[in-house]
Amino acid sequence: MSGREGGSGLGLTLAQTFVQQHHGLIECDSEPGRTDFKILIPLP
Predict the structure, then answer these.
(1) What pLDDT sits at residue 44?
(2) Taking the complete model, does pTM exceed 0.70, yes or no?
(3) Contact at 8 Å (CB) between 7 and 13?
(4) Is there a contact between 34 and 23 (Cβ–Cβ < 8 Å)?
(5) CA distance 14 to 8
């Protein structure tokens, strides 16, 4: 599901896969009308 009309919702799934492959973390903060995502990836 996507927040955009006609969206497929694949963006967050692809981001999650990428972040997991790099041993990172996605944090989410949501309030009505606004959702923020923070992507944390450790340095090698």
Answers:
(1) 80
(2) no
(3) no
(4) no
(5) 12
Other beta carbons within 10 Å of 16? 14
- Token pair belonging to 16: 């999650």
Residue 7 has which token pair?
């969206």
Q: How far apart are CA 33 and CA 29, in angstroms?
A: 11
Dig out the tokens for 18 from the structure: 């990428």
The predicted pLDDT at position 11 comes to 87
What's the length of the chain?
A: 44
Tens digits of per-residue pLDDT, 1-44? Answer: 456 677 677 888 899 999 999 999 999 999 998 989 999 999 98
Domain ranges of the chain: 10-40
Question: Which amino acid does the sequence have at 14?
Answer: L
